[in-house]
Design brief:
This protein has 10 helices and 14 strands. The chain is α+β, with helices and mostly antiparallel strands. The structure holds biotin.
Length: about 325
């Protein structure tokens, strides 16, 4: 994992506006020679940033980007957070914290080994999206994991809808969707002992502004907030809203379980009342989606009966797999 030194951070803060900046201007600003500015540009390019240079004009990014601002994050969320420039996976950084507090969070500008559910890769280009993981401890196992990921979905969707405008929905068990395309995902991992308190790491990835050069690497229909809301998103503000909402929701979940979230989840369910296919390793079931119950089960109605489902992948029946 890496954190920028002050000079690289300043270079990046300057380039973030997407305009040209001459080597001379940058050198003066940072008290660096033009040669060392050029060396630092090469370091930033290695992170995948598409910085190009034009003789006589200087360096620029092809578009402006919104960088995470550590001061802004700490002002909104307190000191129990880490911000890294580059990590393998934020989930792994949380796992390595010695005595984490509930709600402690790790964010990164990019992940080199971001992972999704079912062993998939999570495309995590620099400065583009939101990648964070939070620690939470629960008293006992009691079907907590399923509930916890459903609560996370509700908290994240509500935070985005309130901040940017309604439109984000949930796909069981824990994907964020907009108009049939995936906006984000949640990866819940458990660490530690079999009995007693359960240590949980909740990883959240949200597509904010997909760089054109990364789009082809995503293996399913995707969308991002810039497209949905048609404007540049301030990622620091987004992170503060989403993380504080999630902390609040997990506090309530620890005290009262999933029950206070069921109505909200069902209101946000993008498949409610629709014909769906539920697939798992062994079988496939067709039915009408009837939302969730307070133990986290998905209710699938078929032949007049309600079946309670605890695992599997859901897709629309009419074009099976289209939402993968
Ligand atoms: C999914 O497959 O839908 C889950 C995606 C989860 C991605 C996030 S990004 C932050 C955290 N770190 C990871 O490596 N994965 C999660």
């Amino acid at each position: 994992m890496k954190r920028f030194d002050a000079a690289n951070q300043l270079l990046l803060d300057t380039l973030a506006d997407g305009h040209f900046h001459s080597g001379e201007e940058l050198g003066e600003q940072l008290s660096l020679s033009r040669a060392s500015v050029s060396k630092r540009m090469a370091e930033l390019r290695r992170l995948g940033l598409d910085i190009f240079s034009v003789k006589g004009r200087g360096y620029r990014l092809p578009y402006s980007i919104s960088l995470l601002n550590e001061k802004g994050l700490k002002a909104g969320l307190g000191e129990k957070l880490q911000l890294w420039s580059e990590v393998g996976s934020t989930n792994d950084i949380v796992k390595a914290i010695r005595e984490p507090a509930n709600g402690e969070v790790v964010l990164a500008e990019c992940q080199t080994a971001g992972r999704g559910r079912r062993g998939q890769l999570w495309v995590s280009p620099f400065g583009a999206h939101l990648y964070f993981s939070m620690f939470w401890q629960l008293d006992s196992r009691n079907a907590a994991l399923q509930g916890l990921s459903l609560v996370t979905g509700v908290a994240v969707a509500n935070a985005i809808n309130d901040l940017l405008g309604d439109g984000i929905r949930l796909k069981w068990p824990n994907d964020l969707y907009h108009n049939g395309r995936k906006l984000g995902g949640i990866l819940v991992e458990m660490v530690g002992q079999a009995n007693g308190p359960v240590n949980i790491i909740i990883g959240v990835g949200l597509n904010v502004a997909m760089p054109p050069e990364s789009a082809g690497r995503v293996g399913q229909p995707w969308t991002d907030m810039q497209q949905i809301y048609n404007r540049q998103i301030d990622r620091t503000e987004l992170a503060v809203q989403v993380i504080s909402r999630l902390r609040e929701a997990l506090g309530l979940f620890s005290e009262q379980g999933l029950a206070p979230f069921v109505d909200d989840w069902n209101r946000l369910d993008c498949f409610w009342g629709q014909a769906v296919v539920l697939k798992n390793e062994k079988s496939q079931q067709v039915g009408i989606c009837r939302g969730i119950e307070s133990d986290g089960a998905l209710l699938l109605e078929s032949a007049g009966q309600i079946n309670r489902i605890y695992g599997g992948e859901l897709s629309m029946r009419s074009h099976d797999n289209a939402f993968g």
